[in-house]
Design brief:
This protein has 207 residues and is mainly β. 10% of the residues lie in helices and 26% in strands.
Length: 207
């Protein structure tokens, strides 16, 4: 059952899916799409044309601006900052938003700043407070500030186990992932691994 707090503003033309939760003082603009089982925390703003895909969780005080695309089962921590303009100026005559992609299963920690034009890969994680200026590959952990951000570790699908770069694809879906993740998220992780590494299998057991 979809639950929308009375203080939330849902503009005409916004599309709200099934089993969605929208908390206090959210604002979802016309032509935005909030898919099934999404949760929007307090004070979340969703710009026109934005799609937030199934199962994603947007925590308190996040603005999802035009040009930002949120994949399924992504986690956006509280007070994460997205941008969509590389050269912001008041009074610009014409402007197009610069796209940013947060792919399936990715997680962005509290207070991170995501500059526009980057991609956060599937099941990647951006650490709390990170200032991200370049893309993060799937299943990688990125922490730091700007050019100093390092993605020098890999993560399993649930994020509990850190592993060195070059870890075999079969190890990205482990016993801990089966214990912590919903079966459909496990299936999604397996599909991502298979898509990126078609010659390898992800059994889900530690090897």
């Amino acid at each position: 059952m979809t639950r929308i707090h009375p203080t939330a503003i849902i503009e005409d033309g916004a599309e709200i899916g099934r089993d969605v939760t929208i908390w206090h003082h959210c604002h979802v603009r016309a032509t935005a799409k909030v898919c099934d089982r999404v949760s929007l925390g307090r004070d979340v703003y969703v710009d026109p044309g934005v799609t937030i895909r199934e199962g994603s969780r947007i925590q308190n005080s996040v603005n999802v601006y035009a040009g930002v695309e949120i994949g399924p089962w992504a986690f956006i921590g509280p007070a994460v900052v997205f941008t969509n303009d590389r050269y912001p100026r008041a009074g610009t005559r014409s402007w197009q938003p610069v796209s940013t992609f947060v792919h399936a299963g990715a997680a962005i920690g509290a207070g991170a700043i995501i500059t526009c034009g980057v991609t956060v890969g599937a099941f990647a994680m951006v650490g709390a407070g990170t200032v991200l200026t370049h893309s993060v590959p799937p299943f990688h952990l990125a922490v730091g500030f700007g050019s100093g951000v390092k993605a020098n570790k890999m993560l399993c699908s649930c994020g509990e186990t850190q592993m060195p770069l070059g870890t075999r694809p079969a190890e990205l879906l482990r016993d801990c992932c089966h214990e912590k993740l919903e079966p459909e998220v496990v299936a999604l992780a397996r599909a991502v691994i298979t898509e990126n590494h078609p010659g390898d299998s992800a059994s889900g057991a530690n090897t």
